[in-house]
Fold these 4 entries.
Entry 1:
Amino acid sequence: MQYIDNIIFVILLGIGIGYFTYNIKKAIRNVKLGKPSNRNDRKDERWKNMLLKAFGQQKMFKRPIPALLHLVVYLGFIIINIEVIEIIIDGIFGTHRVLHPLGKFYNFLIGAFEFLAALVIVAVVIFWIRRNVLKLLRFQNPEMKGWPKKDANIILYFEMVLMSAFLIMNAADYKLQLLKYGHYYFKEGIVGGFPISSYLISFLPDNVQSLVMIERGAWWFHIIGILIFLNYLYFSKHLHILLAFPNTYYAKLPPLGKIDNLESVKKEVQLMMDPNADPYAAPPEDAGEPERFGAKDIFDLEWVYLLNAYTCTECGRCTDVCPANQTGKKLSPRKIMMDVRDRMEEVGKNIDKNGKFVDDGKSLLDYISKEELWACTTCNACVEECPVENDPMDVIIQVRRYLVMEESAAPSELNMMFTNIENNGAPWQYSQMDRLNWKDE
Amino acid sequence: MSNELKVRTMAELAAEGKEPEILFWVGCAGSFDDRAKKITRAFVKLLNKAEVDFAVLGTEESCTGDPAKRAGNEFLFQMQAMTNIEVMNGYNVKKIVTTCPHCYNTFKNEYPDLGGKYQVFHHTELLRSLLEEGKLKVEGGKYDGVDITYHDPCYLGRGNGQYEAPREVLRQLEIDIKEMKHHKENSVCCGAGGAQMFKEAEPQKEEIFVFRTREALETQPKVIATACAFCNTMITDGVKFFNKEQEVKVLDIAELLEEGTK
Ligand code: SF4
Ligand code: SF4
């Protein structure tokens, strides 16, 4: 029976990592529902972009206060997770503080982790206050009601609890070392640095049995918490912790003003402009189904935009700077990204259930209204602002393309503008013959 | 004196067997809108002063297709683009200058892939070089004591990263720009882009041009400088909204420079 702990540990670890892998595979499958995307050019720039924007969080620093807090949580989390390596080894082999022979360096590490843990707690508390007490405007939009709001808070509680567990574990351990109890006692003396948790020991009981219970409890809590956290990611906006890296690699590179020319239209236009082409020629036999112009559903978007949707942190920076949203219109670029994700997950569940996608009579247009779509000025403020380099604007344009070219559903004033361009070569009703009148006025 | 513009068309030059160094693409607003036509004329005066060898397409010019593209009508955009490219390639155009950031962006980024490869300049870029080369000479002190702020057009600034050329021209005029709270990459749209110019706004609290002009007015300017005819229209409307048209002028960089050069 002495290996029961180790066995339980290994089983939990297996389940945790297994379920995580299962969900990540699902996410990859869903992203691949999109159309092919040609983002393999300019590799050097892409690597650099990833390094600066994902690793260096460059865009966050446009707003220094949240940037600093976020950096603390991010670094704290990554660095403290080094400790998880030791936890895993200890868990599997039933050792205790297996890395302690690193000596002074080990003490330094544990001490540094404690400082970071305390800083993370402080940062997370401030984050919580910003969201729930100060009610920062960008967290109050309609799309942030319900789950998105809960999601954000759940993660904050998670981080507080995980960091507290780490500190309590250390405090109990330290006290047991001081009491020279059992295997907690090392003949080298005190092992580990406890700059923060040493202040907590007076709150702990003096009874060694209770201390061991607390130490073991916190230890299990910490590792199980991390496994739950890992598996929570897939269901949360916190997927960005992982996806920010590929997302910034495949992001739209400058110039932001450029919008790709639609290939399927190119073919048709070339045919129309070619004086030798036979306008009545039947399409070639192998042409297959003609490609849809623009995007009606997630299948019509290139996969990069689906990756964007999974990576979206729901931070609302895009919406915060959107001129349409700031002047009280319904359009919110964050909601556009969230809609793409919601629809993608709906399609994913459909596939899980039926083995393949069975038409459910729905599309992206059930999520995004025309009122939102037509309010965009294509100003690129959202794209410029997004810390993970998402491109909500292009999604808007692609759905507009569908509305205009497949459904002829543009607002009537825009149809008038199109007619003017077609007939007089200007968006207004002026004759092309008057184009040079300014010269003599 | 306003009738002294020297403007040739590509067709006239071609008939003489000549090619100009650069094509001035006037754009729809610059050709038809009363306010924008003044900007066109100011820019041509500058080109004349600097003796730039240029021509326009005149009646052969047509919309670049930008508003159609941004409104989702890719078909119409590409038809326009192909037609324009045919005309320009027919005249062997190598360089284009335009006062419209939308035309500029379209030529620069979206035409090459359709067979239209040109060296493209925004008028503020060309004006900056003309000043640097000494072809235009600033009359000092013209704007002493005149507070001026500058509004970045989306398709020049964020769209193409050109924040400095217009500012450099203003600096050459010895203008100390009073920047708005949001400027350069954080600038706020005037509300015209993405084909919004051609339709009513969706239900809203206020117009975007009001929102943007409020911030411009906070700098207490005498002049709000623009570099796009559409921004000019929008911000002029904004100034009217605040009943400030007596105190605050909305002028294009070309107009400011035209006034301020010998
Ligand atoms: S591009 Fe459209 S969605 Fe994005 S900030 Fe500008 S108006 Fe808003
Ligand atoms: S798209 Fe970008 S800026 Fe907008 S909410 Fe998502 S992560 Fe934030």
Entry 2:
Amino acid sequence: MSSTGLGAFWENLRNLPRNLRESVLRHGRPVSDRGRSLAVFSNLFLHIHATRSNVRSLRFSTTLGLGVASFSLFLILLVTGILLMVYYAPSTSLAYNSIKDIHFVVPTGRLIRNIHRWAAHLMVIAVLLHMCRVFYTSAYKAPREFNWMLGMALFVLTLALSFTGYLLPWDQLAYWAITIGANIAASPRELTDALGITQVFDPGGIQKQLLLGASEVGQDALIRFYLLHVIVLPLALAALAGVHFWRIRKDGGLAKPGVQQTAAGKGASVTAAAAAPEDSPTKSFGLMCVVRDRSPATNQTVEDTVPSWPHLMRAELLIFMITMLLSVVLGLWLDAPLKEMANPAIPENPAKAPWYFLGLQEMVSYSAFMGGLIIPAIVVFGLTLIPYLDREPEDVGSYLSAPGAKRVAAWSLFIGAVGAVTAVAVPVNFGWLRNWFPDIDQLVIIAINPGSLLTAVYAAWSIIVLKRSGSTRMAAIALFSCFVIGFIILTWVGTYFRGPNWDFYWSPAQWPVH
Amino acid sequence: MPGRLEEEALPRRDFLGLAGLWAAAVAVVGSIAGMMRLPMPSVLPEGGHRFRVGRPEELPAGTEQVLPEQKVLLSSTPEGIAAISLVCTHLGCIVARTENGFACPCHGSVFANDGRVIGGPAPSGLKWLEVSQAIDGRLVVNGGRQVESGSYFKV
Ligand code: HEM
Ligand code: FES
């Protein structure tokens, strides 16, 4: 140590890199298991993870990496979205041209826009697949029911983000898709009109006006969608995702087979330690030991676990890098579409929503109110309630391992597919009620249409399975599998087989030219 | 089957606390409902829906005219003049005039010449709009006021 101030100064300057590193990291390179635990535990961003992870949870087949992929895509969307906001202007006169500038003039603008677009599509796919993975591994069973519910909220938010983002380019596709969407919000009028009470009770009109701030898609709608898309929904999604992750740990990590969740959670040691916590002179156990609670229910022995650092971190980083790679490659390869500027006088023909809403659009083409609101509401409520209606703890943690589960799933996929194809084929070939009875009451069409019949068939099938097998899990598998295949087929039809005037064509090559 | 959490009887002194909590909850829900008043438009920015169209002489009986900006078809018959809205009653696309009626590009609703639905998902016929005459003799269509189908304006 030098006696002069100047010497100390030089000394500090020389040690600056080391001191800087130490002040940021707080610990050296973790070499022991204890050090690795500390690395996770004492870092704000990492400590959402447990310090040790179960080997089984780390296996790719357990999760297929889909939850982490969903969140990675969300992060990619946040970053690219902020970059797009630099130039985007949410005004009907500027929006379209600002997107055009981003696409054709701004350096790297096209790539960033493409990545934002394709990552959004990938996120919808990832979230849907993640939901399937959780369902088929029975991971929604107690104590994870609430996390499944949070997941449904995240699913709805993901779709809402896509829907609100779709309007922003203000091109023909955007304008007409949102016009249709907003009128679906107004479709309870179909019912209130048929009952003749719209004058006094108009929930459809209220919803539409709240959404659009006007009776047509215009400046007010654009600013509202922008606000929802860039602030409200991302914040809500980020907050709920935080709770979702936190619950995974509090519910005892990922679902594992052979572990019966007990009511008391961690159990005996907790009760023993809780006997005299308050007046203990020395703090000899962590906070978790004195909280009498059913969480965290770890139910695992140290032998099945490895330190989360580096094993879990490495797995997460790998998934993140793969999603990133996929988004960038798609962004370089395919351009996000941009049609002509919105023209309120001429609808795009066919006016198609983004692909994941085309199954909905297919059902809307039978009845707006039934297909656009009631059936989606039934589906979302039904999915949300699954963990509360099926509480059998048997096959938790592995894919369809209960006896007979695979057979029920296969049959349900088959029946669901036949039902969905029939629901499309009949109206395409023979028309529907109004073509046969021109003066038929609208209430009859709302109640009886291919969409509502399909839903009823799915429900009936799952009740049959319930009766035959006596198992709520089998009934849930039947219903969920029907939903999955119905969604896929209707989406497929809407995407590839519908052309101008929503007519059925085997291929776009047969579309009439105009 | 018992739940995971034990049920406990409500101690009397907790009652007031609970009542307070409920009051707070009601206040929060109430103010959220009140906050929705702000985004709820009380004046629609489109303003009036009335617009002037041509003079009756320009539209002799047996002719018709499509006004794409206003999304209206003016149709002149010996019985008088009618304005039929071209906004599809299904989900708001603009219908196209066809040889014997109207067809919607979005989900294939089909309407007859007088606007009746004859196919597709539209729940009701195309709207007939009120037609009147201004002092200067020009016709005025009120896009905000629907009239009975088949009610013509007699010049
Ligand atoms: C933005 C959307 C979502 C994100 C970012 C997300 C993220 C995650 C992550 C990272 C995990 C850890 C395990 C894994 O990677 O699979 C997880 C688990 C879980 N998720 Fe999601 N999730 C989302 C949506 C959903 C949906 C739609 C559902 C179902 C309705 C759901 C239900 C669950 C459940 C129950 C678990 C616990 C699974 C187990 O214990 O094995 N999540 N989620
Ligand atoms: S908007 Fe006309 S048929 Fe759907």
Entry 3:
Amino acid sequence: MSEIKTAAYICSGCGLGDKLDIPQLGKIALKEGKMALVRDHAFLCNSAGVQMIRDDIEKEGVTHVCIAACSRRAKTEAFHFPTVAMTRANLREGVIWVVAEGSEHDEVRQEMADDYVRMGCAELKKVKLPQGNPNTTLQKRILVVGGGMSGLTAAFEAAETGYEVVIVEKQAQLGGWANKLWKRVPFKAPYAEPQATGVAELAAKVSAHPRIRVHLNSTIAETSGAPGRFTVKVAQESGAVTEESGAVTEEAIGAIVQATGFTTYDIAKLPELGGGQANVVDQAGLEALAQAANGGVLKRADGKEIKSVVFLQCAGQRDETGKHLAYCSGHCCATSIKQAMYFKDANPDTDTVVMYTDLRVPGMGEDFYRSAQSKGVIFTKGKASAVEAVGDSCKVNFKDLILDEATSLDADLVVLATGQVPSAGVNLDAWDKVVSEADGGSEAAKQNKSEMQKTSILNLAYRQGPDMPQFKYGFADSHFICFPYETRRTGIYAAGPVRRPMDMLQATEDATGAALKAIQAVENASLGRAAHPRTGDLSFPMVRLEGCTQCKRCTVECPFGAIDEDERRFPVFNEQRCRRCGTCMGACPVRVISFENYSVDTVGSQLKAVEIPDEFSEKPRVLILACENDAYPALDMAGLSRTVYSAFVRIIPVRCLGSVNTIWITDALNSGYDGVMMMGCKKGDDYQCHFVKGSELASYRMSKIGDTLTQMGLEPERVSSYEVAITDNARVAKFINEYVEQLVNMGPSPMKGFG
Amino acid sequence: MSEQNQQAVARYRNNFLKEVEDRVEDGEWVKMCMQCGVCAGSCPFGPHWEHSPQKIFMMIRAGKREEVLASDSMWMCTSCYNCIVRCPRKLPITHIMHGLAHYAHRLGMAPKGQPTREIARLFWNNLAKTGRVNELKFSLAMYFKDGFVQGIKNLLAMQGIGMGLMKARRLNPMEILGGHKCKDKDGIHKMIAKAREIEERKQGYAS
Ligand code: SF4
Ligand code: SF4
Ligand code: SF4
């Protein structure tokens, strides 16, 4: 970009003109902010106001616009000038709506507004209009890993939307688990009878689809690249049904849906419930018997007709001893109900008992449950303690939880409702350990590493390991609380039971969603834009490699595995994998990473633009670095609900607390701020951080800042952190007021006047 | 064991749920209970009986025939209908309770001396005899249901009220001699007999 021409526009509408001295703000923008052009307007977001700005852009050659009006989150459609760089000074939500009413507050209110104008102008001079990632890629083909119900659905939906799809399935035919089912739990009204799975029809449609290519007997040997430019090597096992056996085919791929499903929990691990006995099967085993019966009376493996059957729910699930699965697989109650109906439908006189502690039938399952009850399936609330083989049948010892007594039931067959174990590939935590041991020269670790590699599903050629990270209990990654489809591997989405335990209906819905996410990913990549959560963002991290010390912090800390390393150990940014969180920028000790419109400088210049009153003024200054995803909206909401908070704070939104470089903190304290508040999303196991690890990394970095503060002769309380959710508008004001009070009691920062 | 009871046991062996479904009024609803316990929590008699409706239904499914039929719970039901309006599965609980009480009574398995059952029995016998309730005889029967001595005690205790009622001409001592009857006493008897016959046919006692 050649010449830059700055302009500030100050709005006096929405009560701003009544509460603030607008001409003074204009003077500040001109004199201190050094704006080339300053205008005010009584109603800046109306068509006349917007036209005024447009005219300046077109006729006056304005390239940089600072809007001093409402929050950057408000009126985004009116203030949409895609050809210029822009900053916003938040005078409405950030000043007049939160500073207490009354003329006694006029002075502090005006000071706050003055500062926000200074900050907006200072930032404006440092930002550039993002040009978009120049490495746009046009590959939009979608790879679906796994050809079960989820994979088939994802593939079919994506293909029907117009995208080319490649399916890689390790078995010799499509269909996965669904092939093994006699019927499925009903997914259509009236939800009363088991329904046909329809898997054969779906597989046939997929196989015949002109936009879908299927690789059977195949696995993925390597996935390299990034969204929009993945190269996937598909290895065909020998004995294949199609052309070249043992061959490796290369596919150019835009995005990936991983629908690798689950295996059942091994009943051999449940000997106390009869696992291993001849007349005890799991739900998969029962499906096999039902398929063999083909609608007739079900018979055991020994050929005996089954006259009584007991289903034991939660077998090896929801286990609190740590021995078995800790979670509920969600589908198994409805599955047992369905299977009990196999018996009742073939012979109403079969004794069928479903033994549960809590019957969980989500969705329309309640209707299905009722239907089974009216067919005469008996539901007993009880907990089985042991299943014994007695003669030709089984004895189930259990505690009846309603009648509160120990008792037993005899049955020809016992079915254990075991859970789903995800097939999510390599656990990256274990992988990291093995890799570092292998790098240390351990032969055993090297061996171990290659064994682990064989279990990988995606075989990603990423520095961060061969599969996506795993969430709880070995399920594939998911931003579970806020954005369940999102994983930490951009452009790679998990769908179906590999992501969380689920039934077939949920899996097909999940797969449809994942297909749409994959489509979004390839479309964004093709335009050089970011994917979720900064969807459409054109900025991307740029690194000045001359300054890089190869410390590897960015590579390690990037939550999304976007950064690889070259042979000389310099970071290699894969922009299409990057989510633009700025965590790398916050991590970099030599500050060589920046975005066109967000950098150490854009924030640094803002915080330095604030006028710090001297220590005798009794006006402390507190810098708030607020995450733009939750904390900043919560602060805006505080304004919207006219919740008063201290006028001594100056707020700067940041992309993520992970992007906070400690230099900002030290700079702020050096320039005489009395304290710094960091506001970000919840961290930990149930994190809500939009960038998953950002707030956690920030808190780790801040835990180390104490020494620096002591060296500066400052109390550690001068920096404080808060977890703020988007709904916390009332709490956030309380945090501010309490912290300011605490600082007033501590007295002014000794750094004042040295800045 | 009464004859009817023997017959029922023979017929249903250990499938008590089936027996209830066939023979107890609204018994086919029992299998639809989902054991939520809302009825148990709603019944004003909660602490005073042996088994809540929820438990009764579970016991039926568990085949606890003797215990269910001998339970006093069904007799404690006051027909307040709290449970019916609250049951998420819409079980006609009150009706089932009465159905069970009736069935237990028929089989001769209802708890002996259970006061509400006793009142019901005395009331019915009194009514069925003449087609009209003879209040004096009914009250006396009530007083003496626990024996002669207790009967005298009850009489003495109620003396004041009795005298008051007589003074107000609300109680006619002459009723003790036969008393009022309805116009067609035989007709009433025939009607009751017919109703019983229909019921027996419907509930399969005849077979
Ligand atoms: S840390 Fe964030 S901004 Fe940096 S490369 Fe990774 S995803 Fe992109
Ligand atoms: S109707 Fe009978 S069983 Fe139901 S709540 Fe009332 S008293 Fe209890
Ligand atoms: S309220 Fe209804 S469903 Fe719940 S326990 Fe009572 S009878 Fe059963």
Entry 4:
Amino acid sequence: MRFRVSMIVARKEFKEIVLRSRLILSMIYVLPVVFGVVMPCVLAWISLPMIWAPITGYSIPPLTDNWWLIPPGGQFYIFFINLYAGLLNLVQPLMIPVYIAADSFAGEKERKTLEPVLAAPITDFELLFGKALTSLIPALTVSFLSISLSIIAVNIIGFQVFGFIIYPVVPILLLYIIGVPLMSLLTVFAMVLISSKVNRVREASQVGGVVITPVLILFFTQIFGVVELSMVTVTIYILVLILTVACLMFASLKVFNRRRLIEMI
Amino acid sequence: MASNRFAVVLDGLTKRFNGKIAVDHNSYEIEEGVIFGLLGPNGAGKTTTIRLLSGVLEPSEGDAEVYGYRLSNDVNIIRSIVGVLPENRALYDRLTAQENLEFYGRLYGVEPPELNERIESLLSFLDLQDVRNTFVGKFSMGMRQKVALARALIHQPKLLLLDEPTSNLDPVMSAKFKEYIKELSRDLKTTILISSHHLAEVENLCSKIAVINNGRVISVGDINELKRRIWGYREFEIRLLELKPDFKKIVESISGVSDVRYTGNKIFYRCVDADKVNPSLIKALVQANAEIISLNEVERTLEDLYMKLIRGE
Ligand SMILES: Nc1ncnc2c1ncn2[C@@H]1O[C@H](COP(=O)(O)OP(=O)(O)O)[C@@H](O)[C@H]1O
Ligand SMILES: [Mg+2]
């Protein structure tokens, strides 16, 4: 495995797919602004009346031990903001790779450009890794940029009221640090599998929408109070994510080999 | 060391797709530095052969050797010394000509400044400098073909595989393209394999050919030798200033001459051993005061050869 060779593939695809696709470029520019700044701010702002008795004087970032000191309204406000800002930011590591990977995997098939690549001295894994990087690098860059922006934006509003950093709470922070890369990986591998079955970029990206499911599950179980947004829940969630990614990776490696790839040419 | 004279040795090379045979136990050799023609009608197995030799497909059976490396053992080394112009050209439409070449150059381990020099010389060799920064998606068929050829040459391969390189080209473009190929062969001594179903296209380009049909090799060898072997005789044409009745008697009396025909001032005849027949025939005619303007071999086109081989006509 030569990392250099994978980077050559990733650089080419970044130019070909990311820089020359209006859809993907606009996602990269618009998502951090809308999902990272505008929507969390609007939510944080219009939800302020939820807090009956604003409190000050505590500065315990991120919120854990002194939870009991906050009035119930404030607790709910913090829970609510964390959940929604979390949802908005967890959609990106899942959705951005859908479009890039659809173009990278199904697109190569649709345009029939793979033969000279297969004739070059590159291994299946180097090619797969390069294509994965094509999706992962922009997706993670945008996601973390958006997360950072949302942290600044939400706390500018929240800090005035609470006097401490209200977002992200530890479970959400954990989802951001460990969950985000895992979610992008999950999408990439899911797209490898989807692209092996369909022949068109459009089809692949439409089917690829299913990757949003894990984050919807997380969101709705919280909203309806099925489970708490606790460290335990998030840890279990991350463990399930790791397991899923491992399975998908295993399946992807099986599908993405020269013997199968030649069917694309 | 004998095998070193061969750039390519096919050794029972076979490819099946779901049980259906596409290349059927092919065995032949391609000498170093020649332009070799792989001829056959559509579906004969030309593209499959090229994909096998370029390390894209895995043989179902048999093996091949490229510059001493075996497909079965050293396919990655073979990939690095073979350049291929695939049937569907397969360029990245959303990259410029230059970007396409840069990517493939790097993939083969060619790095700047060497990479830039090679791209520069290939672009100028193929008259592509003016469009280097144009997206390949906007190119005409001929230009695409040239970019794809440049791509196949970027790592200076020892063996170049060209799949129907002149199809889709107009006659002028096609002639130009063939000039490039000849120049390559002359200047770089690259071994070149050209596949074609259009025989006139390769007749003046290739010294040796293999004719395949339904995956099987029908005939391999030097074009002229092949013609001789297939027809078993050669045909000549003598042009005279004046054709006198005596001359007819003289021609017909020479042993080894057969199938004599006369049209105007021309004599047509066939013989097997031209080295013996022609000198004695000319001598006899000159002694009879015949004024000979020219003696030519009647050329058969590869088309004729092809028909004879494949259809047995
Ligand atoms: N990937 C493939 N799957 C199944 N059959 C194939 C495949 N590629 C080629 N064939 C079959 O193999 C035979 C030879 O095809 P090909 O090598 O493309 O011929 P040519 O290039 O001489 O026209 C044809 O009958 C073709 O249908
Ligand atoms: Mg073909």
